[in-house]
Specification:
heterodimer, A: mainly beta, four-stranded antiparallel β-sheet, globular, B: mainly beta, six-stranded mixed β-sheet, five-stranded antiparallel β-sheet, 0% helix
Chain lengths: 115, 114
């Protein structure tokens, strides 16, 4: 158990809908990362937040947005869903002491299926 | 544009033998590399890392080798155990800035046969 929790575990929805994925980082971790893993693909970095502020951005679609709240939990919002958005979405957290090499601890992921 | 590639989707090894997992990268700015292990229905778990100032880093049965001129890294597991059966991802980033993207390969599924 990494200490990172993600809800829900599974999500099935229809095209055009909007969903919210939630992540609670490990206690004490200030940085949260979101990744997408499509079928047979590696993890694609989406976005990083540090203490409530966006700090790094990957190839995140405009239909996707994220935020980190004062209690440090984070939400990833996916809207106007398409079939190709079906994937595993992972959240990771790190303490981030100013060192990019801080270990990232991953949650178990949310499996999104868009029908 | 895949900057980190793992060209072998799968690898099968006998228990007790060496497992060698390979990873190639294209971005010469990358100076920090990691390996993660992932079991089914779980998130990836950090395994071992290496900075570009080194060419080898060891942690128990796991050794990572870095060949900067070839832009290639490999993970050696000796001896391999059935519990090592998992998907292994390599990842890379640059430490040039405080906040950086991490680039992952597509993974290699290792099967260690008893």
């Amino acid at each position: 158990d990494s200490g990172v929790t993600q809800t829900p575990k599974h999500l099935i929805t229809a095209t055009g809908q909007r969903v919210t994925l939630r992540c609670s980082p490990r206690s004490g971790d200030l940085s949260v990362y979101w990744y997408q893993q499509s079928l047979d693909q590696g993890l694609q970095f989406l976005i990083q937040y540090y203490n409530g502020e966006e700090r790094a951005k990957g190839n995140i679609l405009e239909r996707f947005s994220a935020q980190q709240f004062p209690d440090l939990h984070s939400e990833l919002n996916l809207s106007s869903l398409e079939l190709g958005d079906s994937a595993l979405y992972f959240c990771a957290s790190s303490v981030y002491s100013g060192d990019t090499t801080d270990t990232q601890y991953f949650g178990p992921g949310t499996r999104l299926t868009v029908l | 544009d895949q900057q980190v590639k793992q060209n072998s989707p799968s690898l099968s090894v006998q228990e007790g033998r060496i497992s060698i997992l390979n990873c190639d990268y294209t971005n010469s700015m990358f100076d920090y590399f990691l390996w993660y292990k992932k079991y089914p229905a779980e998130g990836p778990t950090f395994l071992i890392s290496i900075s570009s100032i080194k060419d080898k880093n060891e942690d128990g049965r796991f050794t990572v080798f870095l060949n900067k001129s070839a832009k290639h890294l490999s993970l050696h597991i000796v001896p391999s155990q059935p519990g090592d059966s998992a998907v292994y991802f390599c990842a890379a980033t640059t430490t040039l800035y405080n906040f950086n993207k991490f680039y992952f390969g597509s993974g290699t599924k290792l099967n260690v046969k008893p």
